[in-house]
Design brief:
- 26% of the residues lie in helices and 27% in strands.
- By secondary structure, it is α/β, with parallel strands linked by helices.
- Strands 2-3-4-5-7 form a five-stranded mixed β-barrel.
- The longest helix is centred in the first third of the chain and has 12 residues.
- It is globular.
- It starts with a strand and ends with a helix.
Length: 184
């Protein structure tokens, strides 16, 4: 199924999404990778606020290349999501509703997705130049010293992704591997 959704996400909108659904995301999405997640964890451990309110929001695991003239951002492909897995359950428990990346997630992340009625999306790796065309605006909002790993606020339009883990715990990767396993 194909769906258009708006970010920030609301539970009612994502509760109908199922693993394997194609979505086009429009709205505000934040970027954060390894170093930014580590800093956010440190801030939380010290009782400090996060640089943005995670409630209802989506984090895109991406570090862009420099913008070409006339563009808000350079190539903007996903990075491997599992590198953020040790930080993700806590952010989900704080209200994060979506993540965009590539690759498998740990069982702890999958459990936190279900517990918090969230969703994990995958974007196509290797398609960063094409994905960047869906990004209308990009602004660094925190940790500028991290360069490409700084936290950015993006305005996206019809950003394509696939639901990998839905709010019910269905996992596209496990479904596909299960089907392959039965054919052999």
């Amino acid at each position: 199924m194909e769906r258009k959704i708006h970010a920030p996400l609301i539970s009612e909108e994502i509760s109908d999404l199922r693993a394997g659904d194609y979505v086009y995301i429009t709205g505000t999405v934040y970027t954060a990778r390894d170093a930014a997640h580590k800093r956010m964890e440190e801030a939380l451990n010290q009782g400090q606020p996060l640089p943005f309110d995670v409630k209802g929001n989506v984090i895109y695991y991406m570090g862009p290349s420099p913008a070409r003239k006339g563009r808000p951002i350079g190539s903007a492909g996903p990075t491997t999501a599992s590198r953020m897995d040790k930080y993700t359950p806590r952010l989900l428990d704080l209200g994060l509703k979506g993540m965009i990346g590539k690759g498998k997630r740990t069982q702890e992340v999958a459990d936190a997705v279900v517990r918090n009625q969230a969703v994990y999306f995958a974007a196509v790796g290797g398609a960063g130049a094409l994905l960047s065309k869906c990004i209308l605006e990009s602004q660094v909002i925190a940790y500028e010293d991290l360069g490409t790993e700084a936290i950015r606020r993006l305005q996206v339009k019809d950003f394509p992704a696939v639901v990998v883990i839905d709010s019910q715990g269905n996992n596209l990767y496990e479904q596909v591997m299960g089907k392959r396993g039965t054919k052999q």
